[in-house]
Amino acid sequence: MGAGKTTLINQLIMSKPANERWALLINEFGRIGIDAVLVTSSQDSRTTNDIAVREVSGGCICCTSQLPLQIAIGRLLSEHHPQRLLIEPTGLAHPRELIRQLSAAHWQTALKMQAVITVLSAVQWQQDKYRSHEGFQAHVRDADVLVINRYVQLNADEKQMLQAWIAKLNAQVFIIWADCDYQTTSNDIGTINTYLATLSEQLAKPSQTILQQRIVNIAQPKKSVISLQPLSNSLANKPLFNPSTNDNATQADKEIELPYRYHEKQQDIVLAGWRLPAHYVLNADKLQDWLLTLPNWQRIKGVVHTSNGWLQINFTPDSLTTKTVSTQVDSRLEIILQASTGQEDVIEIKVDWEAYDRELMAIVIFIYS
Known about the structure:
Blueprint: H1 5-14, E1 22-28, H2 35-39, H3 43-48, E2 51-57, H4 67-80, E3 84-88, H5 95-102, E4 117-121, H6 122-125, H7 128-131, H8 134-141, E5 145-149, H9 156-169, E6 174-177, H10 189-203, H11 208-212, E7 225-230, E8 260-266, E9 269-277, E10 280-282, H12 284-292, E11 297-306, E12 309-316, E13 319-324, E14 330-338, H13 353-362, E15 364-367
Parallel strand pairs: 1-2, 1-3, 4-5, 5-6
Antiparallel strand pairs: 7-8, 8-9, 9-14, 10-15, 11-12, 11-14, 12-13
């Protein structure tokens, strides 16, 4: 979660041959579609890159019902006929379970699975809560390719410790040290091209992880208790749509009345998301200050209309990134709060969501029609 998967997807897209059709399936843990915008900031860029993008929201595709995954893949294959399909699961996904699902007999004639690529943030690895977490280790254990980023602060001894830790979990994994950021001008073209060529080469290789087909028993998580609520609107007196709590469909694709907010608890995290009409303009500085004061936040992402224009927001505890994007149909904001500090030490996060609604609406500085 927040390791840099979206950045890697953009890098893979850059390596796509011009004559190939690709498709991208994005699994969002939350219920408001944002990651597709983080990958491609406009529909024009998606068309230019000849990439079809589809989202499956509302939980890990490996943990929830397989039906949303089956429908999404089926539609991508039948409607777009891609030559390559990239699947980006959530950072909380179980790699082996997803591999098992995609190994089902009915996919054998339609899909040929290849490299399993994992992104590892060296900044996260330095923290014991990540390094000792079974889910964090599972992504390394079941990877064919491990892309290590954010490692510049590691000294030589720490890099050796990291490599030894990886080898203990997965001695066969192919490691790529991501020593360039394609979005900056600080890297020479040769370095970028070499990095992209290495990524592209690994995409075409058969997966040893999949070939081994190691069968494991994966504990099924308890079903989440979902609370979907309309955002209290202090700026307009009109009824708001209240979607059914039994509906697992992606809220991003529904015709709901805005402004809108949902919140829920899944596993050991709390998620919340807001959608606001495009004509609500928020004070950019106050919005950032408000977001950073939220309790125990682990990830904040969004695409929001602000006083500085339309901004893409992508915050992790070790990285605060904003970038200008093109005009969107509405503003979308999603937060992930940590609900526990360990397997036994559980913290009950009690949030007054209506108070948060009022605070967010107070940041709106202008509404135009």
